[in-house]
Design goal:
It comes from Diaphorobacter ruginosibacter. Belongs to the DegT/DnrJ/EryC1 family. GO terms for molecular function: pyridoxal phosphate binding; transaminase activity. By secondary structure, the protein is α/β, with parallel strands linked by helices. It has 2 domains: about 30-275, Type I PLP-dependent aspartate aminotransferase-like (Major domain) (Aspartate Aminotransferase, domain 2, 3-Layer(aba) Sandwich), CATH 3.40.640.10; about 275-400, Aspartate Aminotransferase, domain 1. It has 15 helices and 13 strands. The protein has helices spanning about 5-10, 30-45, 50-65, 75-85, 105-110, 130-135, 155-165, 220-230, 235-240, 265-275, 275-295, 325-335, 350-355, 365-375, 385-400; strands at about 70-75, 95-100, 115-120, 140-145, 170-175, 180-185, 185, 195-200, 210-215, 235, 250, 315-320, 375. Strands 1-9-8-5-4-2-3 form a 7-stranded mixed beta sheet, sandwiched between helices. About 45% of the residues are buried. The model is unreliable at about 1-10 (pLDDT under 50). The structure holds pyridoxal-5'-phosphate.
Length: about 400
């Protein structure tokens, strides 16, 4: 060995400060109550869709504050979006409009049904789908719009619902980020759209590990989605004509899917839901602390909700000033132990969408400019005020010229 021993080298070098542990980009907030509820399910003998999934659906409708809503628990938001579009009758030859600045799930469900996604740009002030772009892209084949409440800030639903009404097309909200969130004082999930779909993926504002909730006030849509959620099994068909239908009796009315939520997942959801407002308040406090700590850095802060509206604060993406290289900024954050992400690499930059929908970056100036300059900071309930300060300080150091 020719290398000096570590003890002799450390006696000559100034001691390096112990590295701070890495701050993850996202962490679920699971407490003892969630664990106890899952254990209760495991001991109950009923693991798959059963009493807890049913209770979760009821309590979700109560949470949204609208008794007229049907809530349909599924094993992902992607599944819920697929079911909603299927039940809305979307199929080959149809066009469905969604935003480029989203996760691929918003668009892939359109392809599941053999329909054609029409990808449009977002608005500068909200980072959500631009209603004027929606209007511009409506054709005789347009059947639905999928707005995304980006980062937990409501899209301009008033404009979108007005366009949909004028053209006789459906609105299915991708509400994956939007629990809880309001538009003009009304909870997302209770608007006049055809359906809204929430996600309980592990990094979302509340979680069931994997899971989602399809919410609708359309009885026919709900009925179809419930049948298609579980193999196309229809028990009601018999029950309607024969009150003495035996438990084993059912009919298959379509080649359905396997999209039901387990009671194990619902057990987590039941507890998370009771904490949803309190968890949102914590994320809003973190966002306010970031706003304050980053106000003088030259960084553009994420769009806030309209006055009086609730922002779910699922994400806290910032836009870097011109001249600061986004990828190098993220590298510098990682080097300081801060987990980072980008929301999103837009659909028009993804090979499949670019090729199959013939998308060109020039047609998405708002999304493209944001994509090149934005990075998302960690924002989740388990962060302490000290963690937030640590991230803000790391941002300042990452912005210093190298
Ligand atoms: C997470 C996410 C989805 C998909 O949710 P899953 O529950 O993972 O299927 C859909 N759309 C957006 C915008 C998302 O962020």
């Amino acid at each position: 060995m020719t290398e000096p021993s570590s003890s002799s080298s450390s006696s000559r070098l100034p001691p390096t400060p112990p590295a701070l542990p890495t701050l993850p980009f996202a962490l679920p907030d699971i407490g003892e109550a969630e664990i106890a509820e899952v254990v209760d399910t495991l001991r109950s003998g009923w693991l798959t869709t059963g009493p807890k999934a049913r209770r979760f659906e009821q309590e979700f409708a109560e949470f949204l504050g609208d008794a007229g809503l049907q809530c349909i628990a599924v094993n992902s938001a992607t599944a819920g979006l697929h079911l909603a579009l299927e039940a809305a009758g979307i199929g080959p030859g149809d066009e469905v409009i969604t935003a480029t600045h989203t996760f691929t799930a918003s668009a892939e469900v359109i392809r599941y049904l053999g329909a054609d996604p029409v990808i449009v740009d977002i608005e500068q002030h909200s980072w959500c789908i631009d209603p004027r772009e929606v209007e511009k892209h409506i054709t005789s084949r347009t059947r639905a719009i999928i707005p995304v409440h980006f980062g937990g800030r409501s899209a301009d639903m008033s404009a979108i619902l007005a366009i949909a009404k004028r053209h006789g097309i459906k609105v299915i909200e991708d509400a994956a980020h939007a629990l809880p969130c309001t538009h003009r004082g009304a909870m997302i999930g209770t608007l006049a759209s055809d359906a809204a779909v929430f996600s309980f993926y592990a990094n979302k504002t509340m979680t069931t590990g994997e899971g989602g909730m399809l919410v609708t006030r359309d009885e026919a849509l709900a009925r179809r989605a419930k049948v298609m959620r579980l193999h196309g099994i229809d028990r009601d068909a018999f029950a309607r004509f024969n009150s003495a239908t035996p438990a084993w009796r059912y009919d298959i009315v379509a080649p359905g899917f396997k999209y039901n939520m387990t009671d194990i997942a619902a057990a987590i959801g039941l507890v998370q839901l009771t904490r949803a407002h309190e968890m949102r308040e914590r994320r809003a406090a973190i966002a306010a602390q970031y706003d304050d700590l980053l106000a003088d850095t030259g960084i553009a802060l994420p769009p806030h909700a309209e006055a009086g509206d609730v922002h779910a604060w699922h994400l806290y993406p910032v836009a870097l000033p011109a001249g600061l290289h986004r990828d190098r900024f993220i590298d510098a954050m990682f080097a300081q132990g801060i987990g980072m992400s980008v929301h999103y690499i837009p659909l028009h930059q993804q090979s499949y969408w670019k090729e199959s929908c013939r998308l060109h970056a020039d047609d998405f100036p708002v999304s493209e400019t944001l994509y090149r300059s934005t990075a998302s900071l960690p924002i989740y309930t388990r962060m302490t005020d000290g963690d937030v300060r640590r991230v803000a300080e790391a941002v300042r150091r990452a912005m210093e010229p190298q």
